[in-house]
C-alpha cells in the first residue's frame, strides 16, 4: 500500500516559509502538465476513510476531523479535474453510518450540507467557478427533510447541461441498496423478463446511464475492503488502490502518485493490446503464384 504522508507533511511544513507557495504551485503546474500528456481516468471513486482516526490522533473533536477531511476533498477535486478526470464519486455516508451515535450522525449530515452549500451556492463558489455539476447519489428517503431540501437546491443550481465535470456524492448509499433500487425500477417500468439484461439494470441504478464506467477506485486509511461501495461498477477494467494515508492527509502528492501509476499502466495496456492485435505479416506462397509467360526473344530465334 502507498503511504506518502511523511512526504506530504514535509511539503506542508515548507509552505510556512515566506513565498514558498509560489515555488510549490509552479512545481505542481509542471507535474500536472506532465500528467496531461498521457491518458487520464474519466471516472474516479474515493472511499474517504480516516477522519475519525485523524481526529483521535490529533486529540481533536470529531467534527474537526470531518472538517479536515472536507478540506482534503477540495484539493482532490482540483487535481483530478485539472488532469482531465470528468466524473468523481465520493463515499460520503453509507447507510450503516446511521448506527453511529446521534451526535456523530447529525454532525456528518450538517457538515455535508454546509460544505456542499459552500461549494455550490455562491457566485464565487468552487462548483460555479470550475463548472462542476453536483449530484446526490443514494437513498433519499433516509435523508431528513431539511437536509434533503438544501441538497436538492445544490443539485438544481449546479444542474447545467453544458457542464463537463461532475461530483457524485453518495449519501446515504450502499451497493446492495443500489442494486435493489435498480431491480425495483425495472419492475416498475414493466420490463419483460426477456429484456432484462446488464444494461437495463445499469440504467436503473442511482447514477443512471449517463455516468461513465468507473476507471479507478481509491480507499484511504489502510483498510483493504470496499465497504459495499460501487461493487457493481468495479469491473475488471477498474483499478483499485488501497493507501495507508488517512483521508485528511490525502493531498496532492499521494493523489498524483496514484494518477501517474494509473496513466503509466493504462498506456502500457493500450500498447500491449495493439501489439497482440496486430495482424501477422502476410506470407506469400510461391506455388500459388500464376505461371510465368512463355519464353520469347525479340530476334525470333
UniProtKB/TrEMBL annotation:
Any one GO BP annotation for this protein: dolichyl monophosphate biosynthetic process
Enzyme class: transferase
UniProt KW keywords: Magnesium, Transferase
EC number(s) from the headed UniProt entry: 2.5.1.-
GO molecular function: ditrans,polycis-polyprenyl diphosphate synthase [(2E,6E)-farnesyl diphosphate specific] activity
Key word Transcription regulation present: no
PROSITE patterns, per the entry: UPP_SYNTHASE
GO cellular component, one term: membrane
Top-level lineage group: Eukaryota
InterPro entries, per the entry: UPP_synth-like, UPP_synth-like_CS, UPP_synth-like_sf
HAMAP family documented for this protein: ISPT
Family: Belongs to the UPP synthase family.
PANTHER family given in the database record: DEHYDRODOLICHYL DIPHOSPHATE SYNTHASE COMPLEX SUBUNIT SRT1, DEHYDRODOLICHYL DIPHOSPHATE SYNTHASE FAMILY MEMBER
Stated name of the protein: Alkyl transferase
Amino acid at each position: 500500500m502507498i503511504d506518502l504522508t511523511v512526504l506530504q507533511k514535509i511539503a506542508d511544513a515548507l509552505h510556512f516559509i515566506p513565498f514558498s507557495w509560489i515555488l510549490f504551485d509552479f512545481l505542481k503546474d509542471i507535474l500536472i502538465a506532465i500528467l496531461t500528456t498521457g491518458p487520464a481516468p474519466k471516472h474516479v471513486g474515493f472511499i474517504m476513510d480516516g477522519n475519525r482516526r485523524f481526529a483521535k490522533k490529533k486529540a481533536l473533536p470529531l467534527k474537526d476531523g470531518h472538517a479536515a477531511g472536507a478540506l482534503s476533498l477540495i484539493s482532490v477535486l482540483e487535481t483530478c479535474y485539472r488532469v482531465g478526470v470528468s466524473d468523481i464519486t465520493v463515499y460520503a455516508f453509507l447507510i450503516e453510518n446511521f448506527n453511529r451515535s446521534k451526535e456523530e450522525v447529525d454532525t456528518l449530515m450538517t457538515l455535508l450540507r454546509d460544505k456542499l452549500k459552500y461549494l455550490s451556492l455562491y457566485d464565487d463558489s468552487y462548483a460555479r467557478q470550475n463548472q462542476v455539476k453536483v449530484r446526490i447519489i443514494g437513498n433519499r428517503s433516509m435523508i431528513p427533510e431539511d437536509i434533503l431540501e438544501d441538497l436538492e437546491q445544490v443539485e438544481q443550481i449546479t444542474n447545467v447541461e453544458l457542464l463537463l465535470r461532475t461530483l457524485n456524492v453518495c449519501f446515504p448509499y450502499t451497493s446492495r441498496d443500489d442494486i435493489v433500487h435498480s431491480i425495483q425500477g425495472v419492475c416498475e417500468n414493466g420490463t419483460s423478463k426477456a429484456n432484462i439484461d446488464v444494461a437495463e439494470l445499469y440504467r436503473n441504478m442511482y447514477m443512471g446511464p449517463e455516468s461513465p464506467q468507473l476507471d479507478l477506485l481509491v480507499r484511504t486509511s489502510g483498510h483493504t475492503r470496499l465497504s459495499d461501495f460501487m461493487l457493481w461498477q468495479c469491473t475488471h477494467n477498474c483499478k483499485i488502490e488501497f493507501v495507508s494515508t488517512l483521508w485528511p492527509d490525502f493531498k496532492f502528492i499521494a493523489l498524483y502518485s496514484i494518477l501517474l501509476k494509473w496513466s503509466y499502466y493504462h498506456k502500457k495496456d493500450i500498447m500491449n493490446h495493439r501489439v497482440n492485435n496486430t495482424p501477422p505479416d502476410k506470407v506469400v506462397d510461391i506455388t500459388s503464384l500464376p505461371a510465368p509467360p512463355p519464353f520469347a526473344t525479340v530476334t525470333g530465334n
